[in-house]
Amino acid sequence: GGLQFATASSIDRLRATGFRDEPVALAATDPAALWGAVLPWPPCAESTGVGPRREVGATVVVVRGEPWFHLSASGKAMTTFSPAVGADRAALGAAVESLAASHHLACGAFTIERVDGVSPGRSELAGALKAAGFAVDLRGVTYERPRSRAGAPAE
User: Fold this and answer.
1) Which of 29, 31, 83, 132 could form a disulfide with 97 if both were Cys (CB 3.0 to 4.6 A apart)?
2) DSSP character for 4?
């Protein structure tokens, strides 16, 4: 790749930066999201036979260089990958907030109906989803644009 054209000092500076601790939400088709194209998807908790896909509109949340969540293009199905299992509450919350904000910007309000093949309310992420601003409804958990104090959508 591009390393062949970089100077040695540039490569050393890039390597020294390491991975970011804060979550990054990427489009599943973004060239920086290698899973499903160059790399296989990591193990996930979902056992429904329908795993994550690299499709337009889908979102992948990456933390420290590893995928933690995949949200389908419709926003209805969320998959948790093994690196997220057992993560501390604050890290999970930040990753879910990153996912919500990114997918909302692309698609507007959306409802997650399944997390790892189960109802979001019964998933291990129920608390993190609620803390990130998802509202529980009959279909699952819904994320809408946060409102300002006057009731108008926040800018």
Assistant:
1) 132
2) G
Is 114:64 a contact under the CB 8 Å cutoff? no
Q: What is the DSSP letter of 147?
A: B
How much is the pLDDT for 42? 86
Identify the H or E element spanning 115: strand 114-115
- Cross-strand pairs, 37: none
What residues are paired with 115 via a beta bridge? 78, 118
The answer to whether residue 18 scores a pLDDT higher than 80 is no
How much is the average pLDDT of 125-135?
A: 89
CA angle 119, 55, 50 (to 5 degrees): 40
Between CA 58 and CA 79 the distance in angstroms is: 11
CA-based end-to-end distance of the chain: 39
Residue 142, H or E segment: strand 141-143
Q: Quick one: how far is CA 67 from the chain centroid?
A: 8
Query: Up-side HSE of residue 39: CA atoms within 13 Å toward CB?
Result: 13
Residues 34, 41: Cα–Cα separation, whole Å: 9
Name the band, by pLDDT with cuts 50, 70 and 90, for residue 123.
confident
